[in-house]
Amino acid sequence: MRILSGIQPSGALHIGNYFGMMRPAVALQAEGEALYFVADYHALTSLRDPETLRANSRRVALDFLACGLDPERATLFRHSDVPQVTELAWILSTLAPMGLLERATSYKDKLARGMSANVGLFSYPILMAADILIYDSDVVPVGKDQKQHIEITRDLAVKMNETYGQIFKLPEPRIQPETETVPGIDGQKMSKSYGNNIDIFGDEKEMRKRVMSIVTDSTPVDAPKDPASSTIFKLYSLVAPKNEIAEMRERFLKGGTGYGDFKKQLFEKLWEYFAPMRQRREEILADRSYIAAVLARGAKRANEIADRVMERVRKAIGLR
Ligand code: ADP
Ligand code: TRP
After folding, report:
1. What is the DSSP string of 200-247?
2. Ligand 1 site, residue 17, Cβ cutoff 6 A
3. Counting C-beta atoms within 10 Å of the first and last residue's C-beta, which end of the chain has fewer, N or C?
4. Which domain holds residue 265?
């Protein structure tokens, strides 16, 4: 089984990335050949500062390694180290119906959030399809927001197969139901671009501040509160042991505790949860050549697979 996923270096990674994609991706390393990449080509749709792009890309690689990606078991590489993927994206685009992309909700969401409507943003799902198909991927661990992109990938693979004969495997999304959409501090989906994120590796003061600014309703301290609709409770459920989650639920239902106290409790658990990863991150940082070496090795392996698949594609469609 081949497992593949990518993450954009468009900003610091947050706990939605962690629980939605990185933790499942790390768990899948044991189940097959995993390839994970830093999607720098994708980040170009929103990021135009070369130094920031370089720094973010390195940081995403670092953070992913700190969160448990094991380069002895999985391949970690930079998207742009496999430029053949843009060739495949072009090939797929020649078969992609406009309507398929026009229906993509993430494009519409991004416009609604004020991003500029560039062609790259519009055709982004085609590049993502190429990312997946170029490695003959079977399984793609992602958060729920990416589900439609994987459906588009499957549609494009079917179109290619119908037109040129069996070229591509159809990949399956792997979405964890309990962490498919981690809420941000405003209760909406947590996202780098929505400013509602709690970063995995922010410093203590910053993480505390973000947690303390989680938006709550105006239920008075004494009144019972609804755990199911509370962002505090949802996030606590991700990081606390079962018995402590049950305890917090009871205290919500009983009343008598203010949201401020629950937030403090959440912060403590969050900080503790990520402590081993912070330590691993320091260790990686101490070895100055480690990340570059991992990425170089990853690029080599990713290219081996991509070159093979591209030869198959070029032959099948008449470019060879
Ligand atoms: P962002 O929306 O912050 O820019 P990305 O689009 O780079 O994040 O997402 C990288 C991965 O993390 C994707 O698989 C995505 O589905 C997952 N992810 C991002 N935000 C969340 C969230 N709030 N809940 C669950 N998964 C998420
Ligand atoms: N679109 C994904 C995101 O924004 C990142 C991504 C790019 C990806 N290519 C991919 C994820 C291929 C999985 C497979 O989060």
Report:
1. TT--HHHHHHHHHT-------TTS---STT-HHHHHHHHHS-HHHHHH
2. yes
3. C
4. 202-273
